[in-house]
Write a structure and sequence with these properties.
The protein is of the alpha+beta class and about 190 residues long. The chain has helices at about 5-20, 50-55, 75-85, 120-125, 155-160, 170-185, and strands at about 25-35, 40-45, 90-95, 100-105, 135-140, 150-155. It has one domain: Heat Shock Protein 90 (2-Layer Sandwich).
Length: about 190
């Protein structure tokens, strides 16, 4: 399917929305459950949130806060893809309380876009758009009835170890973070065998 972007690009779009809304913490949770054939992606930010009127119109492509163009296709496309893949999409938000965005997909659906470069997306989230926002990441995979694999990462923990003198964007730290994320994702072994 070439018309739709990889899911990691949609994740980055939603992250940027939260960062623009002044979030200091943005959480990403990905759950891949092969037993019930489900993929759920949830982003939660503590930004400014949205009023009821904006929330009601947010999936309309003609609604955008951008000044560079008059359409905003990120959220409407993400919603469309989830619904096309036997899933669901919801945004929960309150002014002053932040926003939760959740997309659910049938994991095996033929039209579900690939996850894409999740390590690159996470790296951009950590040091790219707004490096002052902390990122909490949790990825769970259940390949069988008995087993859940989990990887977590939190920039608050990394900052506590490094202290204020060493930025996350320093080349040495960035290389270490990328390697940590790659190893963590590999440890999940998301694809079931057999």
């Amino acid at each position: 399917m070439t018309a739709f972007r990889e899911l990691s690009q949609h994740i980055l779009d939603i992250f940027e929305n939260g960062a623009k809304a002044g979030a200091t913490l943005i959480s990403l949770e990905i759950e891949e459950d092969f037993v019930i054939d489900l993929l759920a992606i949830t982003l939660h930010d503590n930004g400014s949130g949205m009023d009821a009127e904006t929330l009601a119109r947010i999936t309309d492509p003609w609604v955008t806060s951008r000044t560079t163009r008059k359409v905003g296709l990120g959220i409407p496309f993400f919603k469309q893809i989830a619904e096309m893949c036997n899933g669901d999409f919801e945004i929960i938000s309150q002014l002053g309380e932040g926003t939760i965005t959740r997309a659910i997909f049938q994991h095996s659906h033929i039209d579900r876009p690939p996850m894409g470069d999740l390590v690159g997306t996470l790296t951009c989230m950590i040091v790219g758009y707004d490096a002052s926002a902390d990122v909490a990441y949790r990825h769970r995979v259940r390949p069988t009835d008995e087993v859940w694999h989990e990887f977590t990462f939190d920039t608050r923990e990394v900052r506590a170890i490094l202290g204020d003198e060493v930025p996350l964007s320093s080349p040495e730290v960035l290389a270490f973070l990328r390697e940590m994320l790659q190893e963590g994702l590999l440890s999940l072994t998301a694809e079931p065998q057999g």
